[in-house]
Amino acid sequence: MPELPEVEVVRRGLAEHVIGRKVAAVEVLHPRAVRRHVAGAADVIGRLTGRTLSAARRRGKYLWLELDSHDGPADAMLAHLGMSGQMLVTDATTPPQKHLRVLLSFTDGGPQLRFVDQRTFGGVSIEHLVGEDEPLPESIAHIARDPMDPAFDVDAVVAAMRRKRTELKRALLDQSLVSGIGNIYADEALWRARLHGNRPTATLTRKAVRAVLASATEVMGEALDQGGTSFDALYVNVNGNSGYFDRSLNVYGQEDRPCRRCGTAIRRISFMNRSSYFCPRCQPRPRATTS
Questions:
Q1: Is 75:67 a contact under the CB 8 Å cutoff?
Q2: Per-residue pLDDT for 285 more than 90?
Q3: pLDDT tens for each residue of 116-172
Q4: What is the set of active-site residues?
Q5: Are both 133 and 221 inside the same structural domain?
Q6: Measured between alpha carbons, how far is residue 281 from residues 91, 122, 183, 208, 276 in Å?
Q7: pLDDT (tens digit, 9 = 90+) per residue, 192-224?
Q8: Domain membership of residue 239 as a residue range
Q9: What is the structure's pLDDT at 290?
């Protein structure tokens, strides 16, 4: 699934190309694309038509477009990218993409906003914004800030992670503790910090937790500069272009290749129905404990 850098690339593209534009018409071309909106497709169309997109926001891996309020409750179009969702800004004369699910046209007659999703795991929904300091769509109000958020409280997150009785990689993927870090960047951050993902968080020093969070911030910043990580044509920006950070990955997807730091072969292990990659020399497994 897209992680923070990939979603931020899309958010920046939307901020540049669709913010300030008024929606003229909406087409929902597949019911699964709005399945999270319990009121159905007609309600999505009615609540978007005639509204102006006022801001493009992100919290961790979640993306939404705020709508002008019309003096009523503030709300937004929340985009769930899922495994293959794409938010594309496309000229209106371009033929519909094969997996086009939702189409927004604008009153200025300019490029359309198209939600394309091959695997239909993603979708869009309209949600009320809740909270005063920084309003969020209601369904993601529990999501924590990410390491690249200016308001990210690293000391509070370090304390929360050390209180959590879990393994380090599981904590990095826990979006209620710290958001935006997915499987790819967790592995990359752990390699940079020389820590194994199975390390119990309760045994880690504050310095070690700060180091892995700093590594996550660093690697995601580098990925963002390169347009994110694209393993296939599904992960693209609003113009349909792929990122190229996959060329810079040190461990993720590098099984049996030599570690760039010590030369030891990178290993892969099963982790939460996916894979974890690590260097057995730079990131030694924690010693087993007996009760």
A1: yes
A2: yes
A3: 999 889 999 999 999 877 899 999 999 999 999 999 999 999 999 999 999 999 999
A4: 2-3, 61, 274
A5: no
A6: 51, 39, 21, 18, 15
A7: 999 999 999 999 999 999 999 999 999 999 988
A8: 154-278
A9: 42
Place of tokens 């399945």: 35
Residues 136 and 158 placed together within one structural domain of the fold = no
pLDDT for the residue numbered 12: 93
Q: Residue written as tokens 């509070």?
A: 156
Q: Which residue has the tokens 């057995």?
A: 280
Count the domains in the chain.
2
Determine the longest span between alpha carbons in the chain, in angstroms.
68
